[in-house]
């Protein structure tokens, strides 16, 4: 973890920016440690609304076993993909592997596979002691599977406007990097969007919370971008940012955050990092 200046003592408040479906558990865990934690999602997640995207997803859900491996970029990708998968007695014979960039996605994936009668031994993920949980640290684990003739499906999200118009964003540059590595080895790589992401619509109380000095917990560069769009004139030099990847930290610095820290993305690691930034109230 790295900081850039002395830590202001007022940071007893932490703003959790994860999507609403995930934020509750994080807020509860932080509050149990004595932090004044608040949820302010900076990304809304929902089912795809574009008919072509949805048709592509439905086809992949119905025929997922034709791929040698499926990579899920996040727990949300797992949840939205398997919500539309019907258990089939024959699919357990398929040799499909399931890739996860970190333990949170792997846990969600394990539960989803269990409903299909498949075991966690099908899951590939970075080792527990990896310096970071991302595509780069997943690659050494799965690189032997990327060979000529292999078929990989990357299940991810698509960025849209609040009205559902695609804005061109993907789930992260690391995912694109891994796809390029697989293609370079001769594997056929496809992708489908299991969900869409867009900036949330804030209430007046949401904006009032955002205007207070706090330590922001960012788990996505896109969340930082949405904050910049929502508050383009804000001065973040007095706030803090705890980011779960160096790419996200770079986005926070570009947004004007001076006090920027990094942590691995798991909740236990984030809690340890927070203790290092400032003791709880």
Keywords:
alpha/beta, six-stranded mixed beta sheet, 37% helix, disordered N terminus
List the helices and strands and how they pair.
Blueprint: E1 13-16, H1 20-32, E2 36-39, E3 44-46, H2 51-62, E4 69-72, H3 75-82, E5 97-99, H4 103-115, E6 123-124, H5 135-142, E7 151-159, H6 173-184, E8 188-198, H7 204-210, E9 215-218, H8 221-230, E10 240-243, H9 246-255, E11 259-262, H10 267-277
Parallel strand pairs: 1-2, 1-9, 4-5, 4-7, 5-6, 7-8, 9-10, 10-11
Antiparallel strand pairs: 3-8
The number of helical elements comes to 10
Spans where pLDDT lies below 50 across 5 or more residues: 1-8
Span of the ends, CA to CA: 21 Å
Q: What does the largest sheet look like?
A: 6 strands, mixed
Strand segment count: 11
Structural class: alpha/beta
Strand arrangement across the biggest beta sheet: 3-8-7-4-5-6
Q: What is the overall pLDDT average?
A: 88
Q: Topology as H/E string?
A: EHEEHEHEHEHEHEHEHEHEH
Q: What is the strand content? A: 15-25%
Helical residue percent? 25-40%
Overall geometry: globular
- Computed over alpha carbons, the radius of gyration is 19 Å
């Amino acid at each position: 973890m790295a900081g850039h200046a002395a830590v202001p003592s007022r940071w007893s408040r932490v703003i959790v920016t994860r999507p609403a479906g995930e934020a509750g558990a994080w807020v509860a865990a932080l509050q149990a440690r004595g932090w004044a934690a608040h949820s302010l999602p900076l990304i809304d997640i929902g089912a795809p609304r574009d008919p072509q995207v949805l048709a592509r997803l439905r086809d992949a859900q119905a025929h997922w076993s034709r791929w040698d491996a499926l990579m899920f970029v996040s727990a949300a990708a797992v949840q939205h993909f398997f919500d539309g998968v019907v258990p089939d007695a024959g699919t357990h014979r398929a040799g499909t592997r399931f890739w996860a960039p970190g333990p949170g996605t792997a846990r969600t994936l394990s539960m989803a596979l269990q409903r299909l009668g498949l075991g966690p031994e099908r899951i590939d993920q970075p080792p527990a002691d990896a310096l970071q949980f991302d595509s780069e640290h997943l690659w050494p684990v799965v690189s032997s599977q990327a060979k000529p003739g292999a078929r990989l499906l990357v299940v991810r999200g698509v960025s849209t406007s609040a009205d559902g118009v695609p804005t061109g964003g993907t789930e992260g540059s690391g995912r694109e990097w891994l796809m390029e590595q697989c293609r370079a080895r001769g594997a056929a790589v496809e992708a489908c969007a299991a969900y869409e992401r867009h900036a949330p619509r804030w209430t007046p109380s949401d904006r009032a919370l955002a205007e207070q000095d706090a330590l922001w917990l960012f788990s996505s560069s896109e969340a930082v971008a949405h904050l910049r769009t929502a508050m383009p004139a804000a001065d973040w030099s007095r706030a803090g940012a705890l980011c779960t990847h160096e790419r996200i930290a770079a986005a926070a610095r570009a947004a004007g955050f001076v006090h920027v820290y990094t942590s691995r993305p798991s909740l236990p690691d984030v809690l340890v990092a927070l203790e290092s930034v400032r003791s709880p109230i």
